[in-house]
Structures are given as C-alpha cells and as structure tokens.
Amino acid sequence: MHHFDPSTEIQDYLVFGEYGDVNPSITDSSTYTFLSPEKMKELFDHEVEGCFLYSRHWNPTNKYLADALARLEDSEAALVTSSGMSAIVCSILQICSTGDEIISGRTIYGGTYAFLKNLLPRFGINVKFVNTTDLEIVKKAISDKTKIIYCESVSNPLLEIADIPKLSEIANAHRIKLIVDNTFSPIIISPIQLGAHIVIHSLTKFINGTSDCVAGCVCSSSDFIHQMMDINTGTAMLLGPVLDSHRAASILKNLHSLHIRIEKHSKNALYLAENFEKLGIKVYYPGLTSHSGHKLMKKLMNEGFGFGGMLAIDTGNAEKADALMKCMQDEKVGYLAVSLGYFKTLFSSPGHSTSSEIPKEEQAKMGLSEGLVRISIGLDNNIHKTFERIKKCLGNVGFLGH
Ligand SMILES: *Cc1c(COP(=O)(O)O)cnc(C)c1O
Domain residues of the chain, as ranges? Predict the structure, then answer.
C-alpha cells in the first residue's frame, strides 16, 4: 500500500487570484504586453516565471490547471492540451525520430492504437505490440532502437493492471522512457511514484467528469515539460494543441471534487461487479478477487479510492450485447455512448466502437469478445435500484437462464 494522498495535494493547492478571487481569473487573451523590448527578448531566450508571451505557449489559466495536475501525479511539472490524443502524440513525437522503436501494450485505447499502428510507420517509427503484463516478453522485445515502453495503468477495455514498478526497472536498465496513460485510474494509481517517467491523462474522462469538453495533460519532469514547450523544438508548442482557458478553469474546479467522485464511482462499480458475479456472469473488474490483476492493483493503489468506476461484462455475442445495451438505455440505467468518467452511467460495446480500430483477429487474441459490454458506472445514489434495472434487462435478453 502506498501512502501518497493526491487528494490532500490538491486540497492544499491554494490560489490567490488577481483580486483575491478564490477561483483564479480566467485569462481572456491570446497575447501579452511587455513593458520593454528587452524583457520580450529575454522571454524568447528562456522562460521567466510568471511571465507570459503568447497563449499557444502558456497562459495563466492553463498554468494553474497544469500545476494542480502536477500535484495530482506528484510530478515536477505538467502541461495541458486540447485532447488526450494530442497529449499522447506530442509526448511520443518529442522522444522518437525516424528509425526508433516503441514497445506498446496490446490492450490500449483504440485511438492510441490507431496512431501507433497507422500513423507512426509513415514517419519511420515502428511499434511492437506486446502483452505488457508479461515482463519477459517486454524484455525480449527491447532492442537498441527502442525509446519508449508505452502502457495504460488500467487497460481499456479488459482492465488489465500494468506492473509499473517492474516496467520502470526494465525501462531504467535500458535508459528508455516509460509512458503510462492513467486515464482510467486518476487519484487511485500514481504512476510517477511507482517509477513512470511520463504520465498522460485524457482529462475528458474522470478528471473533468461532466462530459462537456475534450482535454488532456502530460505530467513529467520539468526538463521534459520544458522540452515539449520549447519555442524552437517543442511538439506541444509547434503542433499547437492549445486548451482554451475557459475550459481549463472549469476543469480545475471539477478536479477539486475528483476524490469524492472516484470513491463513489468505485463503490458503485464494486457493488455491481460483485452482484453480476453472483448471477454467474463473466465480469472484468479489478476489485474482484477473480480478476487477474487484483493482487497487483492492491499493491500499487493509493488507499481510500477503491478500484475505479470501469467494469466490463461478457454477454457472449454481439446480438446479446446490443439488446442488453438497448434495454439498459430504455430502463434509464444510463446512456449508450462511448467515453467514461461521467456522472451518469455510460456503456458501449468495445469491439464495435472504441476498440474497432483493432483488427478482429487481434481482438480475439487479446480476449476481447464480441459480446463485451464496457460500462462506466455513474454516481447513482441508489445503486441497488440500478442493479435491479440491469438484472431485469439481463433477464429480458435471455441471459440469466432458468
Ligand atoms: C479517451 C481516452 C484517450 C483519448 O483522449 P481524448 O481526450 O478523447 O483525446 C486516451 N486514452 C484513454 C485511456 C482514453 O480513455
């Protein structure tokens, strides 16, 4: 058990705004004035704390949010971007050049998979997709061209748990970077504490929690964040995925309730997972002792936030999955929609949506069944009633037998 408490780090983040406003003022400017040309020249030479140049580089509101996210992940520094994908793409392109290789987990977010598989080879960067839960396979895959080991702390959609300390040992032994996408387990797992070099989030999901915007972040060493923001060579600066400052301000406010939300998401998810299992349904939830990553997750997780709000059930085939999801929407369990981390329950069938970029035979190899339904559990106050509604749907689609 780790004793790092991200919620206290965020709580202790006090900001005294321009007028003593408890929520820092939202900066409404793309550019910033200088009192002298000399000062402007100085800022082009190197960053000056508290000085701003142009909003694609930094703006004060984005800086407030980035500093709070660095606290969440216990990293030296952080930057925010306009999407989780841009955070991933910019981090990888900051490190890799033509001829380099990446070792990536196989069960990763569909968009990340598509980028690694379809776009990177165009730039001469090749990716080996392996089962990153098997450390021997990871070691064997490394060559002198490898620059990055890439994984998700809790993988999508089967919720496999990455052994971050062991992967970090392997990365350090080869002087390469371990990048961890922590989107599924913010506050629960702290990858930097466990040895990761770079942590990515899609803020779109749990961290914002209201499904009203798309955003991302990178948490890492000050050195790496500076590299990404470098005016001449930084990917975040030059590819330009800027987060709007109004959005940054609203995400920062939502971040302050993350600990309460995650606790409730986790509690509700565990309740459903245990009860689905009692019905004899194949459930993937790392809080269940039957889950392959249960013991490892217990070892890695911070105390008090549970095992997260994501679970998956296997209905056996695509028809049943579709019928179940239709019924669940009709019964007001939540919405048939992609994405996750919303206050309402969201469900989709990964094989036909978020993981559809992954070829069918690859999906089968990963254990990604056609009948899989991925559910992001909401903040329902009466989770027992939600369970009864889902149970009714399972019965309707002939899943419970007689
Ligand atoms: C959604 C998601 C992303 C991509 O983030 P966007 O904000 O949609 O660009 C990356 N990784 C994971 C695990 C995700 O769930």
Answer: 6-255, 259-396
Task: Show the ligand 1 pocket: residues with CB < 6 angstroms.
Answer: 83-85, 109, 111-112, 152, 156, 181, 183-184, 202, 204-205, 214, 216
Atom 6 of ligand 1 has which residue's CA nearest to it? 84
Beta bridge partners of 127: 102
Give pLDDT tens digits for 282-325.
999 999 999 999 999 999 999 999 999 999 999 989 999 999 99
pLDDT tens string 1-16: 457 999 999 999 998 8
Give the atom of ligand 1 at the shortest distance from the alpha carbon of 184: 13
- Are the C-beta atoms of 228 and 240 separated by less than 8 Å? no
**Domain 259-396 is found in CATH 3.90.1150.10:** yes
Residue 276 burial (CB < 10 Å; 0-12/13-18/19+)? Answer: buried
pTM over 0.90: yes
CATH code of the domain occupying 6-255: 3.40.640.10
- Mean pLDDT throughout 166-171? 98
